[in-house]
Amino acid sequence: MDRIIEIENISFRYDEGEDGQAPEKALDGLSLSIERGSFVAVTGSNGSGKSTLAKHLNALLIPSEGRVLVDGMDTADEELIWEIRRRVGMVFQNPDNQLVSSVAEDDVAFGAENLGIPSAEIRERVDRALKAVGMYDQRKKGAHLLSGGQKQRIAIAGILAMGPECIVLDEPTAMLDPRGRADLMETLKALNADGKTIILITHFMEEAALADRMIVMDRGRLAMDGSPREVFKESERLKELRLELPFTIELASRLRAAGLDIPEDVLYEEELAKAICALK
Question: Which of 3, 55, 92, 114 has the smallest number of CB atoms closer than 10 Å to its CB?
Answer without folding.
Answer: 114
